[in-house]
Amino acid sequence: MAISRDKKGALVAEMTDLLSSAKMTVFAQYQGMSVGEVQQLRRAAREAGVTVKVVKNRLVRVAMDSIDTYKDTDTSPLKGQLLYAISADDEVAPAQSLNNFAKTNPTLAFVGGFSAEGALLSADDVKALAGLPSKNELIAQTIAQLLSPVHDVTNGLSGNLHALLDGIEAKATS
Fold first, then answer.
1. pLDDT digits (tens, 9 = 90+) for 16-61
2. Sign, CA torsion 146/148/152/158
3. Whole-number CA gyration radius for the chain
C-alpha cells in the first residue's frame, strides 16, 4: 500500500528528529517476524528507553542526508526489511534490547548500526556492544571498585577490634 507524500514527509521529519538526538542507532532484519512479535520487541525496547521504528530505507536515507553528522555516512547496508532501534540516552541500550529479543526470536538478525558521530558499525561491532554491561551496571561496578579499599580497611580494623574485645572478655571471665 502506497503512502501519501505528506505521510512520507512526516516520517522523514520524525526520523530526522530521532537520528539527530540519537546516541546509537542499530538496524536489524526482521523478515519472518509476525506483527505480534514486533509489538513485543517494541514494548521490551520501550522499557529500556529505546524507540523501535519500521521505516522504508529510502526515507531513512533522506533523513540522514538532512543531518550534517550523517551526510557522509555509508548507507549501503540499508537493504531489505529493516527495523531501527534508536536511543537518545544510552549508547548500548539499542544493541542490548535487540540482542535480548533475538535470543528468543532468532529471525531477528543484526545488520549494523550508526554511532552518534555518524560512523557505520558492522553487525559484529553491534554484537560486541550488546555484550557490554549497561551504563548503570558500569557505574555500580566502578563504585564497588572505589569502595573496596575502604571496606578492606574497615574489615581489618573491625577484626582487630573483635580480637581485642574477645581477649578482654576471656580475661574478665577467667
1. 898 888 889 999 999 888 899 999 999 999 998 999 999 999 999 9
2. positive
3. 25
* Residue 114's CATH number: 3.30.70.1730
Q: What is the pLDDT of residue 27?
A: 93
The single-letter DSSP state of residue 66 is T
**Cell 509476525 appears where?**
34
Q: Give the pLDDT band of residue 161 (cuts 50, 70, 90).
A: low
Torsion of CA 20, 22, 24, 25, to 10 degrees: -70
Structural domain span for residue 34: 5-132
Give the predicted TM-score (pTM) of the model: 0.74
- Same structural domain, 56 and 125: yes
Q: Which of 116, 74, 94 lies closest to 28, judged by CA? A: 94
Both 55 and 15 in one domain: the answer is yes
What is the full DSSP assignment across 122-160?
Answer: EHHHHHHHHTSPPHHHHHHHHHHHHHHHHHHHHHHHHHH
